[in-house]
Amino acid sequence: MGEEKRPCIALAGNPNTGKSTLFNALTGxxxxxxxxxxxxxxxxxxxxxxxxxxxxxxxxxxxxxxFSAGAEEACARDFLAFGGAxxxxxxxxxxxxxxxxxxxxxxxxxxxxxxxxLNLSDEAEKKGIHIDEKKxxxxxxxxxxxxxxxxGRGLSDLTAALEQVMEQEPHVRHTPFHKALPAAFEELLAxxxxxxxxxxxxxxxxxxxxxxxxxxxxDAELRNWQSRCRAYFAGEEEVFALYRKERSLCFxxxxxxxxxxxxxxxxxxxxTTAQMDKLFLRKRTGVPVMLLLLALVFWITAxxxxxxxxxLMSAFTQLGTECRxxxxxxxxxxxxLLMDGVFLTVSWVVSVMLPPMAIFFPMFTLLEDCxxxxxxxxxxxxxxxxxxxxxxxxxxLCMGFGCNAAGVTACRIIDSPRERLIAILTxxxxxxxxxxxxxxxxxxxFLSGGKAWMSGFTLFVVIGISVGMTxxxxxxxxxxxLRGMPSAFVLELPPFRRPQIGQVLVRSLxxxxxxxxxxxxxxxxxxxxVIWLLQRIPVGDGTxxxxxxxxxxxxxxxxxxxxxxxxxxxxxxxxxEIVLPILLMFYSQSGMLMxxxxxxxxxxxxxxxxxxxxxxxxLFSLNHFPCATTLLTIRKETDSWRWTAVSFLLPTVIxxxxxxxxxxxxxxxxxx
Length: 672
Hints:
28 helices, 11 strands, alpha/beta, two-stranded antiparallel ribbon, single chain, seven-stranded mixed sheet
């Protein structure tokens, strides 16, 4: 006998309802993430115990309505209607019941087995909001359970309710949302109902069936019915627009009626979120606080990564000594290739890249978890809308400061394909943690005069330039290659809440830090072998490495740099962390990557570096091609080599032109 099919339970709900926290609490470590088939929308799937049976739990994307046209809505709608879910738990924020009930009512209409989960009930109680769950259950016809997923409260009641509805007969609910339609179409709907099983006899399912873009209906009669429905509305845009309006209003009015009947609020009790939003959402106070928070995150990342980086480098040095003793009987060239090429490159990438990511990503996730990050995006929304981009690009930009590959992946949250592409193409204009070490060193040696506050101020200016370039390029793309009207930006501002430190660490370290580091190592290992070969292949009076540097010298001179500097950026394609070590290797003629140490500044000056060279190098570090990890991520997210090529050429051409212009101005005024 084959294995018994596990029941499939879906989790649906608005963003910021604690749905993912609930999913993690129910599934523990029995989960995996991926993408929906043919989509770039993330999905999470896990297993949990439903009574004595193990069930599959699917966390659907957070959405606001089943009727919207975004990729997340399409994924959620298709899975509920056609994906084989046996039941659904609709998760709503108990403190915002009226705002979240319209989606819940739509899902109740669509799914015959449904449980309404009033999550964040502890926060609702703190705000003085009291919900009569028994009355709400009687009015909606579905079980209603109060939960607080962060503390585990009500989880057993939720699984018991799900187990109960799985054992009951499917319950069909009808909401008269189609009354605005002409009688002739109501007759078509009635015909369609006869083509479905009795347990799925609902007008809302038919509504999705006849509007489904893909002609994938399995039944020939249903396909014929679908064609007749489409023919009926052909050329009747006004009638269809009225239908859509009435459909949404019907669920909204029903939500208002239910919320007023079951909710009571103690107005005297203080609302912490409302009080704090007076600080964070006002322009005069919110923007300075936002800038201070981001500056603090960058400062802690830059300063805090120094000691772990040095410790890792020492550990890798010791490990390298032991590895060399193992390879002592191997051919000299093989030992040198593996140790001086591959091992040193990988150790540099891990030592320089891991500590900043291990600090930045948890801090970034903490801002997200406590509710500050959406408010930062709210403050930046106006700038991005004026640039013709999407407000959510502010979130992906902030993620790019940690890693551009992670920032590109985060662009999935933008619904519009055009605006998502703008965000992907411009994310590289903000410096990731791989570029920060080079920028920090050049700032400290050439631009700060040995003063710590001056170094911090200069770094703040550099970050401001990077954000400005992101906005300028977004503006350019939105009016040339990617023309179009900016879409509406709906951002749910969650309540302020205490972050869950344990989950934040696990999520940020495993899902972001280790994932990105793995991709970087995959690209850095072969790069180390290539660098080793270039340094040892003799050409003329030098090596292939020196010949390439000489070839790049004219372009480097035009940009206020040099051939070796451009070569270091080019060979640093696998990972930005190795740009400076490659340059020091070239200057020292050591044949292997070098740790900068305290003599880095002296070595750079001895090879002709001035403060103008440092300025141009910083500008090119901000504006040049993405690393290999980011390029691979862009290829995966866009599914296009064309846009991947654009993402490589666009910042590089801008960086070359910008450096040449700045160098020309310096020469004109005698500042070189």
